[in-house]
Every structure is written in C-alpha cells, then in structure tokens.
Batch of 2 targets.
Target 1
Amino acid sequence: MTIGQIAGDQTYSKRCHVFLEQTLGVPKAMVTSSCTHALEMCALLLDIQPGDEVIVPSFTFVSTANAFVLRGAKIIFADIRPDTLNLDERQLESLITPRTKVIVPVHYAGVGCEMDVIGKIAVRHGLSVVEDNAHGLFGKFRGRWLGTFGCVAGQSFHETKNITCGEGGALLINDNNLIQRAEIIREKGTNRSRFFRGEVDKYSWTDIGSSYVMSDVLAAFLYAQLEVWQNIQAMRQHIWQYYDQQLRDWAQEHGIGCPVVPAHCEQSYHMYYLIMPSLEKRQALISFLKDRGILSVFHYVPLHLSPMGQRMGERKGNCPVSEEKSERLLRLPFYNNLSREDQDRVITAIREFYV
Ligand SMILES: Cc1ncc(COP(=O)(O)O)c(C=O)c1O
C-alpha cells in the first residue's frame, strides 16, 4: 500500500486554500497547524520588534497576546464592550502611543467587532489590524466576511470550533504585499512553495520562519466539512436560535444576560452563553448542571489578571468590564450534532435552577 502525499500543501490543503479564497474573497489563504501559529505568522510578517506595543482585548485566549509577546512586544490590554464582549473601540484611541504597531480585534463568539471605527482609527494612526477570527468563520460585519478587514487574520479549526480538524487553523492575507513572505515564513524560512510551483530549480533558506503547514491528512478531514459548510452553519443556527427562544425571556426575568448580536452583525453561531447575576450564581449553576450530567463552562480568565499579566504589572481594576463579565459568563453545551432532546434537557435543567 502506498500512503501517498500527506505532508503539507498537497491536494486537500490546496482545495482548502481555494475554497477559503473563493468563498471569502481573500487574495490568499493558507491552512496552518493552528490559529495560534497563524497569529505567530502575523507577528513575524508585521516585523514586530521588542518594545513595539500591540493592543489586545484582555478578554481573549492566550494566543492572541502570546503570538506578539514571542516577538518581544509589549501587550496593551483593552477592555471590552459590555454588550458584545468585543474590544471596546471607544477606548481604543486612549491606548495608542508612538510605539503602538498593531490592534488585534477578537470577534468574540463570532460576532463582529466594530470594524468600521477600528479601521478608521488604525488608518489615522498608521497601525496594522490583525483579526483574531478564531470564532468567526462565516460571520459578517455590515455584510462583509469577518477575516477580510485586517491586513491578515487568523482562523481556528481546533476541535471546539464549528468546523474542525482537531488541531488546525488558517492565515487569511488581505494585503498582497505580505503573501510571498508568508509562504516563506510558513515553510521554515525557505522558498519551497516556489520550488513546488516550478518557479525555482531548488529551494533554500531565505528568511526566518518555522513549520506552520498543516498535514494533508488533516486538510482532507477539514475539506470534507468545508464542502458542506452551509449545512453545518444551518445546524448551528437552529441550535443557537432554540436556546435563545427558550431562554431569553426567562433570563431577562431573572436578571440574567444573553448574547447581544447587533443588527449589522451576522454571527457565526459559535456559542451560546448566559451572563449570570454574580460569580456565586454562575458557579452554583455550573455545579447544578454538573449534577445532572451537563457540562457547562466559564470562558476566559482575563489575560491581564493571569500570572503572566500580573508579571507585566497589570492588576485588578484595569479592565473592569472584562473582569466582571468573565466572572459571570457561562457557556452552554453547543456542538454541531447536539440533538433537540439533549438541548431540551439542558434548557429544562437551567429553568429549574433557582436564581
Ligand atoms: C480567540 C481565540 N484566538 C486564538 C485561539 C487559538 O486557536 P488554536 O487552538 O487553533 O491555536 C483560540 C482558541 O480557542 C481563541 O479562542
């Protein structure tokens, strides 16, 4: 038996690239080993140097910040909007200094950040925008796909995402000037991609880089889902809407918050969450559900309060909205084949919880 070509950039990786480029209308897409690695590539591509400042919401996954910290950047933590839990663009300008290089909006739960305002601020100050679109594939902001606003964007195909290959990601490149170097950085700092295309007769070391390619085995797994992405999104939309129909009124009566999706945002249906009245109530509901065999989880300890954030000199009170929402947020079970029966069990249990 021959195994065939299963390293990076073979048949299925190429299909994933073409799919993402054609569907989203981006000049270049490259599948990567993770979104973390796609974000690391962004920091390399933008030549982030020690001391450069990068504005990141505190309420996000560690990789949003770490990708830039690895290049020596100083992270400036932004607080979030109380409604969408996205980077608060109204506070952005006060965080910009002469050392600022990049703004990293994270489209939390696949609901778009206020990209028109963020884009204008970036242009005014000569800054790059890197979208962390780990949650937001197929979401839109004012009719435009998330991931197409920044000069570059990271996508995640981790097992927790709507579309997954276990571990994986993609880099979307909207600035043509970054494409050639991205190919080199992703291929261990070599021009192997050009060699594969027959543009050079041998490949060699031309820049810094690492191994950010995805195995074609994983790309095949991924492509099978990309082919039916509309079905997957429709399933998730049904699940999200059912939670919302069944829980929003009840939640309001009990002082519990539900996701806010502004009219100009088409979300990616990545998650459904509740904002409980307090940390104590949130913890009590997690254990109430656990006793009934239902796993619900909190999301994101604010980065500025993490041990690493504190070593950077951050302290409680610096991003008050992130701190408060993080203590109260609870994610409900949400996966593509969650049955109506199981969803009813979750909803019934929540409604039985004495708030
Ligand atoms: C906002 C955000 N960015 C980046 C990542 C990292 O993605 P990956 O696990 O593909 O590296 C995650 C992971 O869930 C995330 O939530």
Target 2
Amino acid sequence: MNPWDQFTGANAGYVYELFERYQRDPSSVDEATRRAFATWTPAFAQDDSDRLRRGGPADPAESNSTTAAAPFGAKADWSADLQTGIAAFTLAGKIRRFGHLAAHLDPLGFHNPIGDPSLNPQSHSLSADALKRLPASIVSGPAAAGAANAFEAIARLREIYCSTTGHDYSHVFVPDERVWLRQAVESGQFRAPLDPINGLELLDRITEVETFERFLQRTFPGKTRFSIEGLDMMVPIIDEIIHDAAEGGVQHVMIAMAHRGRLNVLAHILQKPYTQILAEFKDPIFSKQLRVDLGWMGDVKYHAGARVEAQPDGLPKQVIISMPPNPSHLEAVDPVLNGMARAAATSVDQPGPAVVDKGKVLAILIHGDSAFPGQGVVAETLNLSRLDGYDVGGIIHIIANNQLGFTTDPDESFSTSYASGLARGFKIPITHVNADDPAACIEAARLAIAYRQRFKLDYLIDLVGYRRYGHNEGDEPSFTQPAVYRIVTAHPTVREKYARTLVEAGQITQQQADEMVKARMTALEQAYAAVKPEQDYIPPVPAMPPSGAATKVKTAMPLARLDELNADLLKIPEGFSVHRKLERGRERRKTMFANAAERSIDWAAAEELALASILADGIAIRLTGEDVERGTFSHRHAVYHDAVTGDEHVPLQRLALSKAAFEICNSPLSEYGCVGFELGYNLQEPSRLVLWEAQYGDFINGAQIILDEYLTSSRAKWGMSPSLVLLLPHGYEGQGPDHSSARLERFLNAAADTNIRVVNCTTAAQYFHVLRRQALLLETDPLPLIVMTPKSLLRHGFTASTPLELADGKFHQVIDDDMTPAQAGKVRRLVLCSGKVAVDLFTSEQRKENANVAIARVEQLYPFPESVIRDVMGRYPKLREVCWVQEEPENMGAWEFVRPLLEQLIDKRWPLRYIGRVRNSSPSEGSSSWHAVNQRAIVEQVFEAKAETKEFDRVLSKQV
Ligand SMILES: Cc1ncc(C[n+]2csc(CCOP(=O)(O)OP(=O)(O)O)c2C)c(N)n1
Ligand SMILES: [Mg+2]
C-alpha cells in the first residue's frame, strides 16, 4: 500500500508541508521521514504536465514554494502532483484565513472588498482541471465532505468564506476554539437549511422595524431619532441571540448601545410601548416633571433605558432583558454594562470569595463603527474580559457598522483594516456580515451565542450596512458623502429585498408582503391616536429622596465584638509563612485592644475592622483598584502571600463571623474602564458595598466621564441611585503636581441636590465610622461616597484612634477644637480646614504657643454641615475672624465651594479670610523644598497675629 493513502485532510497537509521542507533541505526532517520521502510516491501522482506548462503565478511571494523544482532524485511526475496537492492545501488555508477580505460586505457595493491575491488558484499555479484531479480530502473539513474533488471543495470554501459573511478568526490562538469555529462555520450548522429560518416571521420582524422608522419619519419629520434603517437586521440578530441564550440557561440579558437604532431596539426588544415613545416625541412639559425650585430632571429620549421580562418564542421560561440608560459619550456605557453583568452573575450570600456563575447572565454591547476604534474605553473594557475579577463569561459585541461616523469616512476613522480591528488583539472571533443578507445575519447571531455559550468568551459581529439618512434626521448627508447617498437613495430596503426573495421562492406573494407593512403601520397609527401624553410620558423615577438616615445611623461596635473580629483577622492557616516584616505588624495588632484608651488603631487597622464588621453585618464587599490587595502605600495587606510557596491568604474571606462574600482584586491599569465597571456593579447590586481606590487621587480624572455622566448626574437624569465609594489618596507632601491632589474641587463643583457625600477624614476612627455608615445606608439613603484618603498620614500618630473611639464614637461631620469653654473664650481666630493640613496645624510648634486660634476640621464637605459649623462658631464668643485654610491653590480644593456657604453662615459678623496657596494652573510645586516653604508659610500665617509673614511675602512674590 502507498503510505500516502493513509493521510487525508489536515494530516495530508502536514505531510505535504513536511515534504516541502524536505525538498528545501533534506536534513530538516528526521531520518525515517527522509527515507520515506526518498521512496514513496504521492497517491494522486498523475500526469500534471498541463499545470506545469502554465504561466507563472500572479503573486510570486505566495507561490514560490509551490513552484520550486524537486531538488534531487525525485521523479518529476509525482513531485509535480505533490506540488499541486500542496498548492491546493495552501489555497484552502488562505481562504480560511483571508477569505473575509474578498467577502461582499457592503450592501451598497461602495466599498469594494480588499481582496488578496493568495485567494486565487492562479496565484498557486492551480487550474480548475488540476484541482478537479485532486481528492476533496486535501481541503479537509466539512466543505470537503461530499465534494467530488478539490475543485468542488474549494468552491464551497469560497462560498463560505468569501460571499456575504467574512469569518475572521485566524487570530484565535487556542486550537480548541479555532477548530470549533472552523467546524461551525464550514459545516453550516447554524445556517439554513441545517438550522432553518422561518422566513415569514423574519420578514414580519424587519417589516416591524422598518415601519416604525417610517412612521416616525412621517409623523415627526426631521426630528432626531437616529434611525436604524440600513442596519435593520440588528433587531432580528438580537432576537436570535436572546432566544439561544435563554435556551442555554441565561436568565438575564443586558444590552447597552448608543443612539443608533436605540429607539427601535427599545420598542421591539425591550418592548417599550409605542405610546410611551410617541409621548416622548411630543416632548410635553408637565407639572410632574417640574420642580418648584426651577431645577430639572430627565434626559433625551434616546438615552433612556428599559427593562422587561419576556418569554422568547417557543421557550417555556422568562428571561429578563434590560438596557441601562446611557449618556451621549460614546462607549462610556461599555464598562458600566460589563460591571452590571458581573454583579448580576455574582452570588455573595456566603462568606469567602464571591461566586460567579457565568452562564446566568449575557451582556450584549452594541458599538458604533467610528466609536469602537476611536474611544479608548473600548480597549479598556475588552482588556477586562479575561481577568478573574471582571470576567462575565463573554460579551457579545455588535458593531452597528453604517460605514460612517457623523460625516467621517472609515479611512478617516481607523487605522485597522476593519472597524473591528481592535478585537483581534483580544483574540475575539469576528464575523463581518452584510446587513442586507438576513440569512447570513442570523447565522452570525447563532454562531456568536453558540461560541459564547461554549467557551464563555467574547464574540464580535461586525454588522456592515449603511445609514439611510444623515447622522440625525435633520442632517443633509449629501453635503459630505454625495456619492454614497446617490446609491443609498436608490437602494431598496432589506425588507423589500427579503420580501422579493421570499416571493421568488414562492413562500409569499407580494400582496401578502405589502399587507404586512399595512398591518404594522395601522398598529402604529392606532397607538398614536391613543397617546395621552400626560399619562404616557413617564419621567425618570425619582431617586430615593435623602432620608436623613445618615445622621442617625449607629456605626459604633462593642469593644468585645471588635476584639473578636480582630483576633479572627489575625488567624493564619496552618503552615502559612507570613513575610517576616509583615509579622511584626501583625504582632502589634494582637495587642491593639489591650488598652481601650490607647491610640493603637492606625488607618489600615480601622479599615480592616470596618470591612470585617460590615461583612459580619451580612453586607458583601467588593474592593478593587490598582494594587489594592497590598495597598499603594504598603499598608493594607488584605492578601497575604506565603513567603515560601506564594499561596494566598485573604483574612477577610476566612472570617468566622462573616456572613457575606468579600471580593478584592488588583485592577488592570485603567481608571475610565475600571471606575465605569465598579459603577455598573454598584448600580446593579446596590446592596453590596463597592469600593474603588485610586493609586493616587490624581488619576481619578482618567474616569472623569464616568463621574460626570453617571456618578454625580445619574440621579437627576435617570433616577438612579449610585452608592459607589471612591478612595482617593490626597494631600500635599511634596511629591509634585501629580501626586498631591485628587481634585476635590471637581467633586464639590458637581455636588448639588444631595447627590454625593464628600469627606476628608483626619482620624482612623472617622474613617472606620464613615465606611460603616456608608454600608449601613446602602438600603435606606444611598449616595456615592468620595473619600479623600491619606498617604503619609496612614501611619501618623495624630490620625491613630483609640478602641473606644470605634466602640463609642460615630462619624463627626465636623471636629471642633478640643478646648475647654475657658480656652474657647480666648479664641480670636477660628480656622476651618479639612484633611491633612489640619494635622500640619495641630502638630506645629506654633499651635502650642498660640491660644488665640481654634482649629475645627470640616470632615464632611458635602452635604455641607451648615448647622454644625454654625454651632462651632457659636462656641467662640470673642471671635474676630474666620479663616478657611487649605493646602491646595486658591482656585482648587474646597475654598471656592465653601466660600459662599461660609459667608452666609458668618452673615457679615466677621471677616472671612483665605489662607492657602495662591491661584495656580498646576496643583502643586514640582520641588519638595518649595513645597516645604509654602506649607510652612501656611502654618505661620494661620498662627501669626498679623496675616503675612516675611517669608510668605517672599514666596508669593516669587510665585507671581
Ligand atoms: C465621546 C464622544 N465624542 C463625540 C461624540 C459626538 N458624536 C455623536 S455621534 C458621533 C459619530 C458616531 O459614529 P459611529 O460610532 O459610527 O456611530 P453612528 O452614529 O454612525 O451610528 C459623534 C462623533 C459623542 N457622542 N461622544
Ligand atoms: Mg457609524
């Protein structure tokens, strides 16, 4: 028997490759193979002189190897056949890899396929005849099965890879996944006829989609709706994904998308009633929207979210489908939805690590073709996909690719070959599909959800269509894309085309197809006639009004309980070796409760005790951020690493008293994406305490879009109730402009309507109580909590607290100077300040010598504790002036926020002075010496009877 006969398909290909190597360099294969190649003849050795006579290849680079002459001894005929086999095998590989480049993806035919010479048989010196002489098995896979020869198999392969679908998955490096994809794609298992499509239902669905837009266009001409038209198949694609997901056990499908087609998806996937949408188009002004104080709420209609419990066709169970509201800021919703999905998939009712069930929830993210490559947060979100602390078992991405971004063409939008290029780096399989081919779109959807369910990994559908109108419906697209819009105007809709296909196939008559349109239009007209804007317009559900619970909640904990928690935290698993240096700290903690009045509790201990006590109260916690496990300042050590084995021990997950899960993870180096994720997690599961810590507070500005669009305004815009905690290391310690300021002023600038809490604590006990307060308010009075946290003060004696302060105390919005009434009677100057500068003042030499100055710490800046400060002012009968003191420049920090509030409180009784750094564009000095000078000047100015010292004058003159 000829040994070549044993090899078929991929194996044969491998042998051909080996032979090719052998031809180039016989010593590159092992001895036995060398012997075999010297004697065996390929099975299909037939006269192929025809092919050999033909001209050279179109692309020599692609085909050099296939035209190389046998170097020695081989018989010319079998060598030639072997070459043909190798060429056919290579061609099949190129089609699988690059076939998408020749696929007809653009329904308008405006952007031609890029193509690739290696996809042509001629480039491999292959003729049709030569291919016909080869067995189909050389192509291998399902395309070869049942094919008479390689010619037929190659033709099938081209049909699969180069028609209206571009399967782009060669970048998936895990063989299992790639083999699955290849099999799924080539077998046609997700395509009709193997997986049938109900053509009439599909036609009716796209009729519904199109008619909705046409009705809106007719009824509200020119009004912005961001029509889906040109990408109508998006709706059936989502239908299909939801159906298959629900069938596979998914209980909750979460969808996020931008403006394009959103109203259509809200109406038809989220089942938002037509009457409600139409009432929004009428844009009524009603009393229920207005507030007496000229304030406002709400957002434009195409930012609204929705939620529905639906039963997909033919399935016995319900599935929740939800879409969060989102802002204009394209792609900002990506990490938010990702975090929501994670929260929904996570169970936290057992102590220990959180348990994630990746099969429970499915997230679908719909992107724009300009926004996907353009917005960095997309990359940040994709980067979360396979990280333990963020994984949601695969997101299905759909690029709503209308080949335009406002007026910007694709070649002005991205440097990758496709809008989806970024996904390749994340090993996400991509299906580019022509939005005018409904069957291909349905296959893409089925493929995506099947892959996601099988591997629990992301999948991307690049739905390539067009935009029927301008960016919005009042826009004239032919100003900028005249050629495209000449085609669009004459281009039939996908509904028209599909109706024609079904008519030609005899499945429906044209009249029946037209009836479908009429029926849908009638339903819309009836809905419109029935609209009662006063009832149908539903403004955002008002967020829980502030309940005042914040001042009443009891955060203290009995000493014995704290001691017990502490002992529990200090337990170490048998045989675990703690790092020598960390052991010392643990030893100190063992005696922390020995004397209840001793200042033995530092910042990190207070935090750990607070978190432990929250877990013991049954509230789950998630804490993330850059390097949070250890803590940027090496203070937290929430995760111990065995000094010998590297094994991990997380005390808060081993707590005997805990009643809920504790999740902690170092985040990737991202702020926008990660803060968005945590915010989404928090919104989805508001009863859990979610904390994000910045490496340094400065870096929070990387997440500014999330802060502005979600954290501080989502209450007013969408009636949401976020309660995320941000821990932002803040304080002037001479580390330069970028490690000093968490931009307190930006939070205060966004503070209104009791939308956040902003604190700057100066003691460990205050931090303990504020964390506990936050946890205990999650259900009754939730608000985001912004904490300016210390750096050098983490281990400062001044900030340490006594066990009693935890056991008997509470969070104080203001900490007044610790003076007797007699001492207070001498005070002339009341200094109000917040955070680290207070510690500088209290611990200064001047403080001891100066009895005229009282220092009160404003620990909570928002909501501003007016009445407490009023009381503080009342304690000093001989007061002559009030000073606001801060480390930050005058245009930053809290000053500009507190100034009008203090002026109101002072009511012209005393002058209000500012002491702090001068206005500056940069948050702080670049030199630590300069920092020391300015810091000293602030302290001196506070305690000087006369305001300016010589040094301060000098500093000022230099700075100016
Ligand atoms: C972050 C951000 N920058 C700019 C804009 C303004 N903008 C609104 S839509 C749009 C074009 C979006 O193009 P694409 O992503 O292709 O979506 P399409 O409108 O084509 O569906 C731009 C630039 C925005 N909304 N968000
Ligand atoms: Mg676009």
